[in-house]
Design brief:
Blueprint: E1 2-8, H1 12-21, E2 27-30, E3 47-48, H2 55-69, E4 81-83, E5 86-91, H3 95-106, E6 113-115, H4 117-123, E7 132-138, E8 142-144, H5 146-159, E9 163-165, E10 170-176, E11 179-184, E12 189-197, E13 210-213
Parallel strand pairs: 1-2, 1-12, 2-9, 10-13
Antiparallel strand pairs: 3-8, 4-8, 5-7, 6-7, 10-11, 11-12
Helix pairs in contact: 1-5
Amino acid sequence: MSYDFVIVGAGIAGASLAYQLAPHARVALLEREEQPGYHSTGRSAALFMETYGTPAIRALTRASRAFYITPPPGFTEHPILSPRGVVHVAQIGCERELEEELALASQTSTQAERLSVEQVCARVPVLRGELLCGALYVPDAMDIDVHALHQGYLRGFRANGGQLLNHAELASAAFADGAWAIELTDGRSLRATHLVDAAGAWAEAPHRLHLRAAGGHR
């Protein structure tokens, strides 16, 4: 079987890439387990928070909002985002860091606010107020329904002709003459112009995967 792209790993990274590529190319998505999302994706409690991370991460988060709020027709039957809110608690001695976080959060959230010790303890009674100097509250943070998002990507990928292969563990891949010759552990062989490693924590398992390119480069 020959493809334009073979993507190793059908978690959220591989599935989202496959979803974007499928309308334009022949794509195979390889999953080592019996079903996608068995490992990291299936255990993820994801949070949509535009105030989190480096400037690049925050920009990517903001850019994804429209897709999450209004996904394409048929993508999912359930909302991808739901209200959550986040409280960042600061211990005594972290006053400067708390002010810095508030200033940073205010760049992307009009609702971010500093809470006094009394206010944060009223919201989270289990906290020990004598240890705190205050908190940062970001009410517009939201939960991401990881299952709905992941399944939406897979559904759209298959609807556009993509092929999902479960129980498809990569044994080796060799690049020569402009294409990848890919061998699976069950003996199946594939060819692809492009090979993408989206295997997550298993992406660099040298005892499991051997990649060879012309000239001996790996």
